[in-house]
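Workshop exercise sheet. Pairs work together: one partner reads the sequence aloud, the other fills in the structure field after running the prediction. Swap roles for the next sheet.
Pair: D.N. / O.F.
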Amino acid sequence: MVIRYILIFVSFIFLSCSSSNVQKASSESNQAVAINHLKYIGAVTQEAQNYITTNNYTPFETLQTQKLDRIEENSEVVVSNFKPKKKSGHEMYSHLQKSTLYIGSSFLCDKCPNIHLNNATGFVIHEDGVIVTNYHVIEVNSQVDISAIFVADFEGNVFPVTNILSASQSNDLAILKVNTNGKKLKALPLAKQELVGEDVFMMGHPFGTTFFMTKGMIANKYMSERSYEPKIAITAEFGQGASGGPVVNEFGQIVGVVSATQIHYTNGSKEHGDLQLIVKEAVPVSALNNYIKTK
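Structure field:
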């Protein structure tokens, strides 16, 4: 069995190396409008570059210190578990798109003077800029020298991460605060409990395909052999870059957080067998609820 986290898809280095003059993505967003993924990512990267140029960000080293201080601590954030009406697939896409965030850790490469962003996902749980993603999304990456963490909404508004409110390595969860400059964000309500067998939707940015939604069900709930914490397996597809993405029920309530994949081969390995099963692993909302407070 091979375990793979879904985070690091380095976002189109050839794009930001070749040009730093990418226009900001259009704020108009609905299913009738095709998303230009390269343009969106380029615009977000440029906005992050502007924050760094003007020294208007929280250094990654500071965030790491905060993370260590907040390990297994409750974020003290009060969130809603309001249950909206059941949604159609079309309604669900709009519901998720408004609250799903593109997350990127900024770094420099050795080919150009421009910054680049790693690609991951997160979602809003409080309108004042409190978001959820995976612990491994905000972790130190030995391959690159990260300077800061930025998030962007579907309109292309970019916000720097300023605080880590709570972090759990065993549950692969992180609760962050971003500086929205007063802009109110659209929060997703949290369910009280995940239910095995219920239909779910997931949104993320797999392989740079931004705001990509899939549908499935919760197939299983089990104890992780790695962390000895509960996890859920879902049949909704996701891939690298979707780490931290929201998993919601048919009412649009959070029931899980995208985390990792488990790859199973016959005879135990790729070298000695065939691919049989890829388990899509998520953190259950019952675990996330331990780090927040509800109304």
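Discussion prompt: Residues 2 and 17 are 33 Å apart (CA to CA). What would you look at next?
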